[in-house]
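User: I'm putting together a teaching handout on how multi-component assemblies are represented. Below are the sequence lines for each component of a complex, exactly as they appear in our records. Could you produce the 3D structure of the whole assembly as structure tokens, so the students can see both representations side by side? Please keep the chain order the same as the input.
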Amino acid sequence: MLTLALDAMGGDFGPTVVLEGAQRALEWAGDSSLNFLIFGDKEKITPFIERYPALQKASTIFHVDLSVSNEMKPALAVRIARRSSMGLAIEAVAKGDAQGVVSAGNTGAYMALSKILLKMVAGIERPAIPASIPNLLGKSLVLDLGANIDCTPKNLVEFACMGSALAHHLFNKENPSIGLLNVGSESLKGNAIVQEAATLLKGFPHINFYGFVEGNDILSGKTDVIVTDGFTGNVALKSIEGTVKLLRSFLKEELSRSWKGKLGYKIAQGTFNKLHKKTDPRTYNGAPFLGLKKIAVKSHGGTDALGFFHAIKVAFNLASKDFIGLVEQHLNTVLDNKEKA
Amino acid sequence: MLTLALDAMGGDFGPTVVLEGAQRALEWAGDSSLNFLIFGDKEKITPFIERYPALQKASTIFHVDLSVSNEMKPALAVRIARRSSMGLAIEAVAKGDAQGVVSAGNTGAYMALSKILLKMVAGIERPAIPASIPNLLGKSLVLDLGANIDCTPKNLVEFACMGSALAHHLFNKENPSIGLLNVGSESLKGNAIVQEAATLLKGFPHINFYGFVEGNDILSGKTDVIVTDGFTGNVALKSIEGTVKLLRSFLKEELSRSWKGKLGYKIAQGTFNKLHKKTDPRTYNGAPFLGLKKIAVKSHGGTDALGFFHAIKVAFNLASKDFIGLVEQHLNTVLDNKEKA
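Assistant: Of course. Below is the structure of the complete assembly, with chains in the same order as your input.
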């Protein structure tokens, strides 16, 4: 039996998305394997939760007045966040009442507070948000996706180490290859930060460093892991999502223009539905803050119940396999070997 | 009659791609409206060009021994570039022998040398590479795509001014809206550079500044122009290209898996071909260095003859409409008004 703490007030749509997502997660996991601690405005939560008896039974609601908005300045957000629905949900994990927390709220406050309350793995300075996305050959792990806007070369090296450890377990690869995102694959390209990070990475004997990769390589599968700062990673991931949406719309529009298009679509509809599902960004929603000693999963703020369900699923899977422990172990090997090298 | 200077030695594939691209451009433009000055290794150029009598007739070949490689350090590249096929092609425009130059060579050297030889428009410090890409509503202009890896807030403001001027003419819009690419649309998001650029942009009364936009907005059409530094822009554009390729491959794979998929594809094949063409990155190849007083078009280094043809087409269209003059005029209005404001 796993217990997850949910911040009911985070994200653009608040409790309804969170609770409906939780209800779906419960159906998926089976009633007896998942419990929730739900933090937020009881008045908004209760009327909704009463409609789902199974969810109500599996949940304990903690009333919290405060919530962190996306518009808050980071400093203020962190100060009030501790007593907010987000902060108390994180604290439940810190105290051991829950095995993981899920929030769609203010990324900066969520990360800062998780760092304080859940502690960092030794040797890692800042947590990173990874995503596992499909490519031509299978899947790539991309990080950071927005937890760290300004990165030093050392931060990028840490992301590479964490990415290597996570990909090792996620993709079941002995020594996953690591690419550093840049504007060209030639060794002289890019700014001083990626240049220095590349030099540093060559000094890690247990990191399978491929060298520089480009934006299209995120999708080509050239390397198992793609490392970048949170600004570039965030823009790249959202560009990819936007392109999927655009092409889907182009395809629909073009197919509806002629009778041949319409007929072809009708016949191959099953295939289109499958593809639609395979490329639905909601099914990739939910990413842990990598580098923490416990599980905190960030959901996209603008997602719906299906997306939030997937974020809960990520926390559930991480917790049930003690992924964080495994990644920490692997990370220690990589970092230790560096010191010996 | 227009004359364009071509660097036959730039890009990953050298003269064959350049010459075949030129041949296609000639067929497209009509023999009597386009001439070429071709700079490069005569021994490699002559055997190829002899196969195309029309191209041979329209071209003057200038033998040059030196060429700039992509692997060269920028300082060295610029030093030797002046006497290279690229440098002499640019010089032909500076001297007025040609109305524009096209090269697929080393971006850094190409930009640096163009700045020196072709001069900058008053008020603009660094040229930017724009691209016009399709979105849900029409087209967006994105800049910079890699000419400027590290950007100051002032550089971003210049890109906004140039983007506004170019979009005004390209999209025929009175006052195109300008978005600044960031990790979120909330006003507090992002790093110090985009924050300061946003503050500066609010002081330009003739710039229709929308505010921050995100990666997906490049494709959604939220604003006419998207402004970003060359690092982020390059990664975003290549991520978009990679996604198009990935989805095309997914679609093909899924459709070939069942007889319904195969039949549906067969029937709607015309639609798929149309979509394929609409999203072919080669048809978007070729971007001017915006901010120069003359026309220098950068082609993607890895493109083929079709792509290079499109880059020549861009130079041809810019030159035949005196686009640079129009953009400079519009830019002066924007910049002048700032000073008066």
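A couple of points students might notice: Chain A is about 50% helix and 15% strand. The CA atoms of residues 152 and 193 of chain A lie 6 Å apart.
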